[in-house]
Write a structure and sequence with these properties.
Blueprint (H helix, E strand, L loop, with lengths): L1 H6 L10 H42 L9 E5 L18 E7 L4 E5 L5 E5 L3 E2 L2
Antiparallel strand pairs: 1-2, 1-5, 2-3, 3-4
Length: 124
């Protein structure tokens, strides 16, 4: 028994402070929030798919949706009808298609599609 005690290193028992436990719990909560963020991304993609389906039905658009260019809205314009896209000043829009006349079909950052007059856009 005496030989075993010589070679055995005594380690103090570490007590975890209550504050540290609270911090550890809050870190775990943050990690859980990361997973919730991924769920909202999935919900957002579903919403974008719904908007795209609505766009194809409303505008009878059969072609592939490709971004021709991006434009910035110069002024805020509320929509007069469902087919028009309401824009705010400084908003980035993807131009999807050019239509005859003074309007283009655009998509905003929320995935909503609609007509926007060319005079309200700034193409760089």
């Amino acid at each position: 028994r005496g030989k075993d005690e010589k070679h055995r290193v005594w380690m103090p028992k570490l007590r975890v402070a209550k504050e540290y436990k609270d911090k550890r719990k809050s870190i775990d909560d943050v990690e859980r929030n990361i997973f919730k963020f991924k769920k909202s991304g999935e919900e957002k993609s579903k919403k974008m798919e719904r908007e795209e389906k609505f766009f194809r039905e409303t505008f009878m658009y059969d072609k592939e949706i490709r971004v021709i260019t991006t434009a910035t809205a110069e002024s805020s314009v509320p929509s007069q009808r469902r087919a028009d896209l309401p824009v705010t000043a400084g908003e980035q829009l993807d131009v999807i298609d050019v239509v005859q006349g003074h309007a283009v079909i655009c998509r905003n950052s929320q995935g909503r599609y609609g007509y926007v007059l060319v005079e309200h856009l700034n193409f760089r």
